[in-house]
Amino acid sequence: MTSRSIVVNRADHDRLAGLLRSAHFGLKDRPYLQALKDELEGSRPAPPARIPRGVVTMRSRIRVRNLDTDEVETFTLTYPEEADLDEGKLSVLSPLGSAVFGARVGDVVRRRVPGGILSIKIERILRQPEGEGTLDM
User: Does some domain include residue 112?
Assistant: First the structure.
């Protein structure tokens, strides 16, 4: 999969880069994490006030549509230690989480997952912390 150019909050950029450098998360056997690392390396870190409202950021609550099944899901993108699928909290270091991070409303993102290629469309951002000025969550 080719990497895309994303815009990311500076603090999230640094925290994610640190997580991906840590020995805890192996990139070799998880190509989606390597893709996320590549996207971060090519990203445009920015102050929170400069992040466009239509971009999926950390702790954004979004609605996506699986283009193969037409299933709609709503979740909040979180750091791994906050993830809880039963509560609708998806880790950015999961295949789906890494695919939607940095995407924009209307984008179709594809990511290789164990079952094949996952194709989803970002339908709506229900909440974006940068757009609300609430980054302390």
Answer: yes
